[in-house]
């Protein structure tokens, strides 16, 4: 755990910021590389990716504020506090915002939503593990206490002050759980994209696998930004994950028969 990578005078370089930048650049690089093979303009895919990243950053923070609305309503200045600005936000907020950008961009440009989503799905799966390694470095998105041998004990007081990381007790390394899970999903998506049989298959596969992974990992997380329900037995994130799974299953169920085109291909 190294939340601060480097300090140069008044400038602080955080590990999370660096790893997030790596995640974004890798994802954009892969999307641009895969665009031509999918019949899309690489430059347009790259530019859209930039818009998605910007929207994702805003969406993730908005979900964070919404999940803690009563607190921010009583403490409005905390919206712009260091801890809030440095927080990763909530992934599903950023993911939803990015999908909205794809949808409206596709309509305006006369492109299909699903072909674009297919291009970006492996890119997201490539970048997300690096972002979760950033979470691990920063100490956010922590897990519940555990006595398992791979439990991780955070000790950095800076992380405790900035993001509230519990210190001095072994916790489930939920950030690493998700990094590993999405790395496996990325490998699966590479195989699916090479043998894709219908438009939307890569996106549907990501939706199902990530929804299962994230919904399961939620049982081991203990950070407060997840909107707990039913006296803490479940979280809103798990219901969103279920919705994502159902969307993926629906896309597989609606896939066209051999030789039949999808609406996005017509």
Q: Could you explain how this protein is built, in words?
A:
- The structure is a single chain.
- Mean pLDDT is 88; it is low at 257-261.
- The radius of gyration is 19 Å and the shape is globular.
- It has helices at residues 15-35, 42-67, 69-74, 82-86, 91-109, 113-138, 157-162, 174-194, 201-217, 236-253; strands at 4-8, 11-14, 152-153, 170-171, 228-229, 234-235.
- A hairpin with a 4-residue loop joins strand 5 and strand 6.
- The strands form three sheets. The protein has a two-stranded antiparallel sheet with strand order 1-2.
- It is mostly helical and 266 residues long.
- The protein contains ten helices and six strands, in the order ββααααααβαβααββα.
- It has one domain (4-265).
- Helix 1 packs antiparallel against helix 6 and helix 8 (174-194) packs antiparallel against helix 9.
Number of helices, counting only DSSP H or I runs of 4 residues or more: 10
Give average pLDDT, whole number: 88
Low-confidence stretches are: 257-261
Rg calc: 19 Å
Arrangement of strands in the largest sheet: 1-2
- Work out the helicity level: 55-70%
Instruction: Label the structural class.
Output: mainly alpha
Q: Sheet bearing the most strands, described?
A: 2 strands, antiparallel
Shape: globular
Number of domains: 1
Strand content: 5-15%
The arrangement of helices and strands along the chain is EEHHHHHHEHEHHEEH
Number of strands: 6
Euclidean distance between termini CA atoms: 50 Å
């Amino acid at each position: 755990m190294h939340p601060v990578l480097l300090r140069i005078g008044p400038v602080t370089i955080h590990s999370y910021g660096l790893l997030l930048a790596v995640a974004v650049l890798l994802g954009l690089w892969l999307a641009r590389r895969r665009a031509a093979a999918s019949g899309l303009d690489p430059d347009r895919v790259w530019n859209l990716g930039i818009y998605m990243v910007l929207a994702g950053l805003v969406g993730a923070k908005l979900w964070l504020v919404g999940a803690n609305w009563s607190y921010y309503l009583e403490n409005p200045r905390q919206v712009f506090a260091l801890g809030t600005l440095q927080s990763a936000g909530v992934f599903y907020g950023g993911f939803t915002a990015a999908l909205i950008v794809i949808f409206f961009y596709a309509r305006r440009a006369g492109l299909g939503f699903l072909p674009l989503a297919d291009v970006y799905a492996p890119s997201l799966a490539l970048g997300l593990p690096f972002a979760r390694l950033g979470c691990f470095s920063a100490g956010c998105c922590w897990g519940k206490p555990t006595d398992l041998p791979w439990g991780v004990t955070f000790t950095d007081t800076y992380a405790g002050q900035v993001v509230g990381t519990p210190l001095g007790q072994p916790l489930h390394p939920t950030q690493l759980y998700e990094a590993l899970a999405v790395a496996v999903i990325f490998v699966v998506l590479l195989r699916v994209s090479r043998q894709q049989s219908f438009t939307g298959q890569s996106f549907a596969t990501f939706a199902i696998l990530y929804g299962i992974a994230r919904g399961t990992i939620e049982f081991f997380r203990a950070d407060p930004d997840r909107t707990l329900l039913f006296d803490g037995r479940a979280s809103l994130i798990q219901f969103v994950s279920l919705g994502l799974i159902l969307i993926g299953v629906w896309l597989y169920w609606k896939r066209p028969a051999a030789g039949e085109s999808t609406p996005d291909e017509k």
